[in-house]
Amino acid sequence: MSNDPLVVFTPSGKRGHFAKGTPVLTAARQLGVDLDSVCGGRGICSKCQVSPGYGQFSKHGVTVAQDALSEWNSVEQRYQDKRGLIEGRRLGCQAQIMGDVVIDVPAESQVHKQVVRKRAEARDIVLNPPTKLFYVEVLEPDMHDPSGDLERLCDALRDQWELENVKADLQILQTLQPALRKGAWKVTVAVHLGDDENPPRIMHLWPGFYEGSLYGVAVDLGSTTIAAHLCDLQTGEVVASSGVMNPQIRFGEDLMSRVSYSMMNEGGAAEMTRAVRAGMNTMFDEISAEGGIDKGLIVDAVFVCNPVMHHLFLGIDPFELGQAPFALATSNALRLRAMDLDLNIHPSARVYLLPCIAGHVGADAAAVALSEAPDKSDDLVLVVDVGTNAEILLGNRDKVLACSSPTGPAFEGAQISSGQRAAPGAIERVEIDPVTKIARFKVIGSDLWSDDPAFEAEIGASGVTGICGSGIIEMVAEMRVHGIVDAPGLIGTAEQTGSANVFADGRTNSYLVYDGTADGGPRITVTNRDIREIQMAKAALYSGARLLMDKFGVDKVDRVVLAGAFGAHISPKHAMILGMIPDAPLDKVTSAGNAAGTGARIALLNTSSRAEIEETVRNIHKIETAIEPRFQEHFVNASAIPNAVEPFPILNSIVTLPTETFNTGGDSSGGTRRRRRR
Amino acid sequence: MSNDPLVVFTPSGKRGHFAKGTPVLTAARQLGVDLDSVCGGRGICSKCQVSPGYGQFSKHGVTVAQDALSEWNSVEQRYQDKRGLIEGRRLGCQAQIMGDVVIDVPAESQVHKQVVRKRAEARDIVLNPPTKLFYVEVLEPDMHDPSGDLERLCDALRDQWELENVKADLQILQTLQPALRKGAWKVTVAVHLGDDENPPRIMHLWPGFYEGSLYGVAVDLGSTTIAAHLCDLQTGEVVASSGVMNPQIRFGEDLMSRVSYSMMNEGGAAEMTRAVRAGMNTMFDEISAEGGIDKGLIVDAVFVCNPVMHHLFLGIDPFELGQAPFALATSNALRLRAMDLDLNIHPSARVYLLPCIAGHVGADAAAVALSEAPDKSDDLVLVVDVGTNAEILLGNRDKVLACSSPTGPAFEGAQISSGQRAAPGAIERVEIDPVTKIARFKVIGSDLWSDDPAFEAEIGASGVTGICGSGIIEMVAEMRVHGIVDAPGLIGTAEQTGSANVFADGRTNSYLVYDGTADGGPRITVTNRDIREIQMAKAALYSGARLLMDKFGVDKVDRVVLAGAFGAHISPKHAMILGMIPDAPLDKVTSAGNAAGTGARIALLNTSSRAEIEETVRNIHKIETAIEPRFQEHFVNASAIPNAVEPFPILNSIVTLPTETFNTGGDSSGGTRRRRRR
């Protein structure tokens, strides 16, 4: 048994004996305890704060005396006077071990901090960004042993931080000499720690000790919206978030029209590339201003996007993505320089693009896989990212399958007669009265139901303007539950349905939701054509999921995760009545919000997650729905509401769907037309 | 014993048994025989031509029958019809082994061809450039197993050429898809094979089989002149050479004045950086035009230069190089992208800068070390690169030492009263008549001596304009031999020297070389001040060499190599009379021409030589003359002609130097002033 004092670190539980006088930081390093330090133990950075515990620790078998650590020293006193230490804290690099002691490393003193995510079921993000700060003291030049300033800086990084083979960008060489001299041969260096394509590389340096932070952006580059999070790479915090329209919209609302634009116009792809990069730079300006930081401190950027945006952003003509076999120029993850993409952030900033899964399942789907981790799930999870194309993942620890399915824009309110984007005034919640068969609803911007006396007054400014995607889903599901629409998707007559709101509308019937014409507002109806659009969209989604279930060899899934901003607003019950998603317990249908954006943030903050998702994507089995014969069959079955053949037992235990049909020989075949991908 | 036929390859002597029907190329690859192929054995490139030998080969113990190889096939016939094969040649990929055979691989079919250098004593260059061509057949995209076109191209490179982990620049991604389709999934790819900072990377690709070559430039970036060789990377040949003035000259003739310019003028360093890069681009335009190639095919560039040019070219302010301790921003070799230096060659072109040895011993000295390889010499060699600064290397297999010494510009004809740059009309050879003590001379542009009756007519156009560096060396040496200048460097009176050409010139004497004033030409004289300048220059050079000899622990060297364009014109005898170089057998004093440029060419053509010179430079022991007390002592001794203390026994066995001195109490102490570095 050693006579040296015993040190126990919590929460890791790592323990060891150290000679009296050993600094706590030294002990932590020797034991591999995750205790941060930027200044390397020189009492400058205060990142190594620890909380010693005193008294009896029976769990660890240690009794800690009051003098277990050395007395408060002048460095700690100076820090206390200047900035203040939290009560009970010590600087790990100053406090020396004098007796048995239990040392707690608070979360903020850990290098690999856990960044907590809001959703209870989501794994925390381990903070481990590729670029970190290191304070070093560099040897001065010596004519007897001439070497470059850079080489001596690299020697310091090797000797003081065990960083081997560090290189520097040209712009570092151009600023190195004055910085070293201004800092009296003490500098803080931002080092990108390297990856499989690059050795470690100095990104930036500051004379003396740099007290600031480094930043990164996680960007979800959507066809419509560019959403970004500006993150502090030292704390993992989101400093600012931003969402701007993708300036490419002027070249076409959906992706196929942008591909067409590039085909029809010489230089069109390059024009769209310039537009999206310019949009990105505007966004960087805005988000930096909002976060109150210098955008030159953004040293890393992670992008997720669908394959067409991926190619256009990189300056690759998306021509091949517009036709079978939908060949990507590259599918692997990309490590680039921000400069090569004309991005005006730090001149040495890096860019990471997540891998694409297939020609229609992009880096955005990979990011969803990183965020929702079906490959780490014990139960079988279906992850659906609902958008103009739905990306669908199905899997568990054993295997993950992926496909995309062309849902079309109906879920975004497009191609629906009273449809609109989600915005104040849009109907988002619907309930039909079982007796009167009249709908009441809520609109975005108000919590009141439309039959509340205060409703009209409260929504005054926006009025009722239309139905958004989640509204139309609830609408159609409610119509189905209350016998206004039958299983094949036909709206009955007022007589058949018993609803005074149904009216004959040409060869079919329509349902009146809201009549604001008296006040100059819209008349909002659901036409049978609207029902058909929703049927096609949901059938595409369901049949993609069902195809993956076939390939997996299962008839049911344990849980369903709805990803995408839209997914966050869908009512699980209504989605299941519609037959959008497979039958599952309602409490097992959850929303992940913008999972693609979260995946981008994980990849930004945790460099290990990059190799991880690349490996995951390599192992994902891709299914191309276009060449799967059963897809068509599933699509036809899924056109019925909820489904012509699937039993949906869990759904049927909750609601009883009318079995009556309204077919009187007219159009009732359901929307079996396939649409091409958007 | 195998019953399979025996194949013996010459000149390697590698041998082995192979099943009948094995193509010669396959056998060569399995034995590790250096047989080239770009198309991978598909009968397209014709790089694998071999010469089978028939009959009795007693040395190899083989008798080769006429049917030892398969008959001429249709691929060979087609090649013969289209381009013609040299008599007796076969295509190694087509000819199959049918019986015992001896196969000669001609030099041009070897991958690692030897590029022969002109000088007998110089090692040949092994051709092994970092970028090579590979023809591949790529799998078409498959919707059942989606992957990017790049990933399938990389798979092809792995499967067909054993190239692992190949990456691509962004610009390749932007051109990849149309090229693959245009070439019907067959492409030729230029791959940079990677180095310690970079994985292998695709530089360029061509649809189908590319019949052209790739090019590189080796640039010696001097203070005055930029000299470049454009080389074919497939053959090693120099396609064109170019020399242009360094446009930085307008900021200052010598390096110190450029450093001053950058110190005195805000943005001056950046201005000089722009100037030299622009000059480089002009040079690339010219050299490509001269070589008749597209400059976009220049994929590699190697630069050697002194430390100040090195920094200015890289955009680093050379401020620190202007003052002790002469700290380089970086001393290691640099691997950069041409784009980062604003060089308009191939967009993915690489740049390699050789390492600097010390603050005054630059990448040019490293290139001399690579070319002259003192570290591989069995005998002790002194390598002197004579310029405004002399870089001096001394060493053998055991050890190499290096220093620089501030010779000043006297050897370039500057600061000499009648001095000029080497140009037509400049005196370059001198002989003084032992009896009349009158000089005769030759000028650049003529082979006649000045006492030849046809001389005046022949040089008519240029006239006699001044004395260049090599001329002044011979002049002073001849004056010393013939008793016009004494050992301390004093010109005697006409009476003391017995020369009618000596005349009193203020407080000292001068020597008339040529009087062209009657025809409106110059009066060319050597003043005692000129002698002092030459004394200082040669003393600096000698004392640097002598210091290295001290450090090495020797009193003599086995051989002396004079490098630099100037070195090529120095008469070894006169240099030794002057005491510029240590005493050595005259036939052991040779000229290496532009050894720095040759070193750049070696680094360009042979990628292995880069790691080699980096290792060599790491092991070179640098001596800083400025802080060596003995340097001053050596300098004072070396001010005498040839030397106040060194015996020069070999020199004395060839010439007898007068011992008389002219000191009459006036200025005769020899030039012991030190000059600052240029």
From TrEMBL, chains A, B:
The lineage of its organism: Bacteria, Pseudomonadati, Pseudomonadota, Alphaproteobacteria, Rhodobacterales. InterPro entries: 2Fe-2S_ferredoxin-like_sf (IPR036010), 2Fe-2S_ferredoxin-type (IPR001041), Beta-grasp_dom_sf (IPR012675), Corrinoid_activation_enz (IPR052911), Raco-like_middle (IPR041414), Raco-like_middle_sf (IPR042259), RACo_C (IPR027980), RACo_linker (IPR040506). Residues 659-678 are annotated as: Disordered. Residues 215-371 form the RACo-like middle region domain. It comes from Sulfitobacter litoralis. Residues 120-211 form the RACo linker region domain. Residues 380-650 form the RACo C-terminal domain. SUPFAM superfamilies: 2Fe-2S ferredoxin-like (SSF54292). This is Uncharacterized 2Fe-2 and 4Fe-4S clusters-containing protein, contains DUF4445 domain.
